[in-house]
Amino acid sequence: MPIAIPTTSTLNDALSIKTTKKGYSLPSSSKIQSNPLPIDVIRRISQHLVNDEYLNTVSNIQRCSKELYFAITPILYKTLHIQQFKSDSLLSFPLGLEQYSRIEGKGGLKGVNIKDNEDNQDDQNDDDLFKEENTLIRRLKSFEYVQNLIIHSLPSDEISENFNKYIKDLSFIIFPNLNSSVELLPQALDDLRTWVPPTYTYYHNQSDLQLQLPAFLKMLIKNSKPEKLCIAFKSLLSENWEKHRDLTLQGQYQLIKRLSNLHLSSTSHQSLWGKSLKFVNIHNIVHQILPIFQNCENNYFFQSHLIGTSANPILVKPGTKKSVYLPGPEYSYRSWQIIKSIQQLFPSNVKNPLQVIENTKWNFINSNGHIATKSSDDDDDDGYCSVNHKQVSRLIKDSVKFDLPQDLPMRQGFDRSMINRLFDQIHYLDDEEVECKSCHGMSI
Ligand SMILES: [Zn+2]
To answer: What is the full DSSP assignment across 108-174?
Structure first.
């Protein structure tokens, strides 16, 4: 998927006639000079190009003039894709000491008055913004337009640390309008699971140590206020799930801990997400331990069986005849996953458990998806130790209903009378009943 990164393409490259992969053609530069298009028209065209993911083309248009820069930047940056290596140039703020002191000498970022909105244009501000020494500041200011962030993979700590150094003394946050959604796609989740923290000397104090997160995410939780978070595990064919589980088992709990750190505030790290996050959608779950976000509506989308080929996967709905004898976890594993996601919020000596219950919701969507089942005609329990495909849904729910009241009241701080209130917050839904309002399952 293309991403918004600065390129070195020239004006002619951007405007000369060329046929794109879908057959669009753009006018020559001479035509534009003699009969320029109104900015609004270019803006509308650019919006269509962004919708069709021609981001490099739009990036080139943006650079044609100051007017186009201000007209196109909000469109180009509305949804920002972050990919390792590809986004490195976007996030690189490589300050040698000399360059840093030059900017510092001019008052740094604070010394440049950047306009707040398009209606409040000021020529002097514009000129300042386009001075060579303000190139980095101009790039940084374009992040103001980001409303949605899609993280395909995590940028390296080295790149992110330099970025963090550059912004550390700013009095404003870098993504002030990133209040819609952040998506963590499968590779980014894997990066988070397998991330190795730098040596202990890297941490300034104990609270830094507790808040172990890659530098990019550490920056993000302090510089944005998203309402929705989508987390997507890798979607793969049923025949491959067991191999995938074995490969990704290591670090599962580490991943859960790190995800919970995203909305945790410590003395040195005030995560803005703790207050901003309202909805968390977790996609393509098969065997994974489930993360839980306190004070949020947690939507768990379990994956159905997939057959066919990787290029042409075919979805098999649970409970159907076709879904039997396909490889997947046992039903008891699914109830264990669900119970675990609830137990996590109620450790022993939990404070204000009733408040936690009131503010947190669990929606388990397609919870019988991908479970190993047998046919209702098959009475032979010896050959295949799984359950009838028509009963699996009920068995999972019954198991949760039975096990939780056995366990939670045993924990200090949790009163037995809270169990029913807790069950009011837990819902089981079919996937037709609920759609992810953030990514619509499209970017998975
Ligand atoms: Zn989503």
So the answer is: GGGGS---SSTTS--HHHHHHHTSGGGHHHHHHHHGGG--EEEESSPPPHHHHHHHHHHHTT-SS-S
**CA pair distance 42, 64, nearest whole angstrom:** 12
Cα(275) to centroid(ligand 1), Å: 20
Confidence at 256, pLDDT banded by 50, 70, 90:
very high
State the distance from the centre of ligand 1 to the C-alpha of 367, rounded, in angstroms: 17
Give the Cα-Cα-Cα angle 158, 113, 166 (nearest 5 degrees).
10
73 alpha carbon – ligand 1 mean position (Å): 25
Distance of CA 396 from the midpoint of ligand 1 (Å): 24
279 CA to middle of ligand 1, Å?
10
- Domain edges within the chain: 11-77, 179-429
Cβ density class 230-269: b for 16+ within 10 Å, e for less? bbbbbebbbeebeeeeeebeeeeeebbebbebbbbbeeeb
How far is ligand 1, taken at its centre, from the CA of residue 442, in Å? 8
- 343 pLDDT band, cuts 50/70/90, is very high
Q: Say how many Å lie between the CA of residue 282 and the centre of ligand 1.
A: 7
Residue 194 Cα to ligand 1 midpoint, Å, equals: 23
Q: How confident is the model at residue 276 (pLDDT cuts 50, 70, 90)?
A: very high
Q: 132, 126, 128, 93: which is closest to 111 by C-alpha?
A: 128
What order do you get walking across the sheet with 279-285 strand by strand? Answer: 79-82, 148-151, 181-184, 228-232, 279-285, 297-302, 361-365, 426-429
188 and 235 Cβ atoms separated by less than 8 Å:
no
Give Cα 72 to chain centroid, integer Å. 25
**Alpha-carbon distance values, 213 to 81, 93, 197, 243, 258 (Å):** 20, 20, 8, 28, 6
Closest CA to 93 of 174, 203, 24: 174
